[in-house]
Amino acid sequence: MKFASVRLVTDDLPALTAFYSTLTDTEPVTPFGSGDYAELHTEGGIIALADSAAVKRFNNNAAVAAANRSAIIEFEVDDVDAERARLGDQVTDWVQEPTDQPWGNRSMLLRDSDGNLINLYSTGH
């Protein structure tokens, strides 16, 4: 089995796509040529973004946009503080400023435009 992607469902695909494009510093692709789905290909996997109308049409309305409160999307970065500075004007919901964790990581928490929780962390501090 191969892990392929995480798909986030949204009512505002352009805003969420712009957010993750800025966050990951990657250009979105639309592999199906439609305006209701986009992907961001990162080194570790794919962030797939789908409009809620597409989920209703193709996935039996199985997911609800902006309703997640149980998952944390995590990205390993070289320098948490540099990412904080880079994203300062783009992020509107900072949950935890860069913090040294007891197990040696440095991390910060923020939310995307739909409220999904994101952890940016670096190891070996």
UniProtKB/TrEMBL annotation:
InterPro entries referenced in this protein's UniProt entry, alphabetically: Glyas_Bleomycin-R_OHBP_Dase, Glyas_Fos-R_dOase_dom, MMCE/EMCE_epimerase, VOC_core
Keyword set, alphabetical order: Metal-binding
Domain VOC: 2-123
Pfam name, any one: Glyoxalase
PANTHER family listed in its UniProt record: METHYLMALONYL-COA EPIMERASE, RING-CLEAVING DIOXYGENASE-RELATED
Protein name: VOC family protein
